[in-house]
Amino acid sequence: xxxxxxxxxxxxxxxxxxxxxxxxxGEVKNDQLHIYLTSTxxxxxxxxxxxxYISKQVRTAKSNVCIVRGEKSRNKAILVKGKRPEEIVASxxxxxxx
Length: 98
Prior knowledge:
Conserved Hypothetical Protein Mth637, Chain: A, 6 strands
């Protein structure tokens, strides 16, 4: 499952594609949400952009979003505090069937 609830928060498994033409949420493939970012994967810029982008998309503070796995990998796990999976799926405009 690419998204799951954990202690009142949500964990999202994703694959990040840096150096994209625009920031965008892609589709769910191979049990991962694909996220496209314009930033480069240098000096943690893509990670900072990812946190900022996800917080904006799900309408929460940047301090409520953190990378819990994969800081140096394209495959990441993101923790979103205080949001349920259903809220995040709706905010991202994805298919509501979990």
